[in-house]
Amino acid sequence: MKVNQAEIVISAAGKKQYPKEFIPEIALAGRSNVGKSSFINKMIQRKNLARTSSKPGKTQTLNFYKINESFHFVDVPGYGYAKVSKKERAKWGRMMEEYFAEREQLQATALVIDVRHQPTEDDCVMYDYLKHFELPVMVIATKLDKIKKGQRDKQLKLVADTLEMDDGDQLIPFSSETGEGKDAAWKKMLEYLNS
Ligand code: GTP
Ligand code: MG
């Protein structure tokens, strides 16, 4: 997929700020620091359009990126970071609920999981939450460059089994470092966007 155009539309703290434009959207989801923003950058071949950091909690708002004048990628803040106050966690919950429960443009989601670890309880809750809204979920098993080739099958099975993924949802091994999995992820995204 050739990306000719990619720009930030808005960093939204609430629904009043969401873009009005009626083009399809694909939203990210996943733990803090798992590599959601890096996934977006790799997919659209921009080094740091979606801001990344080695510290968790970099993305704090819903960031809408318009791609090829045809769809929005929506970057979101992660969950599961221990050093977050109760108040901040509640704010996160409201921000997500408002988006995932109500956004008509939302076509599909990409749940990003670190392939090195078993998905957490939070990951399982997030997957079920997205399915509750009947959203297609592509599971991006990222940081593939960080495990040995011989461990891949075992780790991928662990991810799929722990999440109890639906048959219709695809698990995509991915690395934002090497770009592995990029073609498979685009293929799936184009299916979602054209359906
Ligand atoms: P929050 O916005 O805090 O929720 O984090 P995020 O999920 O957007 O993570 P981000 O993309 O900022 O990446 C976190 C860290 O992981 C950064 O240091 C990235 O360079 C690194 N990282 C992300 N993806 C990969 C990958 O595929 N391989 C390797 N080796 N590092 C990665
Ligand atoms: Mg981020």
Automatic annotation (TrEMBL):
Q: Does the keyword Transmembrane helix apply?
A: no
Please give the PROSITE patterns that the UniProt record associates with this protein.
G_ENGB (PS51706)
Annotated EngB-type G domain residues:
22-195
Xref: CDD domains = YihA_EngB
What are the entry keywords? Cell cycle, Cell division, GTP-binding, Magnesium, Metal-binding, Nucleotide-binding, Septation
| Keyword Cell division recorded | yes
Please list the cofactors this protein needs: Mg(2+)
Q: Which family does it belong to?
A: Belongs to the TRAFAC class TrmE-Era-EngA-EngB-Septin-like GTPase superfamily. EngB GTPase family.
NCBIfam families reported in the protein's UniProt record? GTPase_YsxC, small_GTP
Q: What is the role of the protein in this entry? A: Necessary for normal cell division and for the maintenance of normal septation.
Name of the molecule in the record: Probable GTP-binding protein EngB
Read off the lineage from the record. Answer: Bacteria, Bacillati, Bacillota, Bacilli, Bacillales
State the encoding gene.
yihA
